[in-house]
Design brief:
The protein is α/β, with parallel strands linked by helices. 29% of the residues lie in helices and 26% in strands. The radius of gyration is 23 Å and the shape is elongated.
């Protein structure tokens, strides 16, 4: 069986470890970014500062598997192994290379996405492809639900990768050349709901921000976070805040306000009314 170690972040790493335990093909050790990560796992843990070429060679490592990482993997790590390194990337490469494919897949209205297992290379997310697995994106998916599903799909693809590598001969193919959409780190300006958007674009952005970020919208001069919108609730205008866009309206059914915290749109309207009554009295 393949001698490998895992470099991972919580979420994708947790899903991978669970699958590895079920398959009984555990990594020799796990490299983690934070000292609190995977503390309950009964597998040797190594900090990224403790990882050395000598440790990799002394452990007779065949490969490194990456299941989420905040930085580009230095070439000396996978060059110190016998058979290189493999990254589990949460998109169908060459589309959406980069840090956060989950956000862009929802925001851009993709109907499907998936997992790509590719070799680690000098250029980020550009290595040869070993395998890909696809899943559909529904109109109710949020970044949170997609993240969970891709974590599980990636874990299953990772275990399949280990089995393929263990069997010996593998077949990979080069990524096609050309310009493709990328997935850079998101910033707060990416979360702003604009009145120039269509209702469909706004709905997708809200789902792309739920639950990790929240999409920003200004109501009564206050910037609030929107976590869920609904077209049908617009028929009950007195119960939910109404967001206006170029081709229609959406009701904000779950929001977060700095003063009141996370709540339903109905409760937020009720709070505003109570404050208005208090100001008049």
């Amino acid at each position: 069986m393949l001698r490998y170690f895992l470099m991972a972040l919580p979420g994708s790493g947790d899903a991978f470890i669970a699958e590895a335990m079920r398959a009984e093909i555990l990594p020799l050790f796990i490299v983690r970014m934070d000292s609190n990560d995977f503390s309950e796992v009964n597998i040797p843990l190594v900090s990224r500062d403790e990882l050395t070429s000598a440790l990799i060679k002394e452990s007779e490592i065949d490969s490194v598997i990456v299941a989420g990482w905040e930085e580009k993997i230095p070439s000396w790590i996978y060059s110190s192994t016998r058979r290189g390194g493999w990254n589990i990337h949460p998109s169908l490469l060459p589309n959406y290379r980069g840090h956060n494919p989950y956000f862009y897949a929802i925001r851009d209205g993709l109907k499907e996405t998936g997992i790509t297992v590719h070799s680690l290379s000098e250029e980020l997310d550009c290595g040869d492809i070993l395998l890909q697995r696809r899943i559909a994106i529904s109109k109710s998916d949020t970044i949170g639900s997609l993240w969970k599903r891709l974590n599980q799909l990636g874990a299953e693809a990772g275990i399949e990768t280990i089995r393929l590598l263990s069997e010996g001969e593998i077949k990979t193919f080069c990524q096609p050349k050309g310009k493709y959409p990328t997935a850079p780190k998101v910033k707060s300006s990416d979360f702003i709901l604009s009145s120039e958007m269509s209702c469909e674009e706004a709905n997708r952005l809200v789902r792309a921000c739920n639950p990790f970020y929240g999409a920003y919208y200004e109501i009564n001069g206050k910037k609030i976070k929107i976590f869920e919108v609904d077209t049908l609730a617009c028929n009950q205008k007195r119960k939910n805040p109404i967001l206006r866009f170029r081709d229609g309206e959406l009701a904000a059914t779950i929001i977060e306000d700095e003063e009141y915290g996370l709540m339903s749109g109905e409760k937020y309207i009720s709070k505003l009314r109570d404050n208005l009554v208090q100001e008049k009295s």
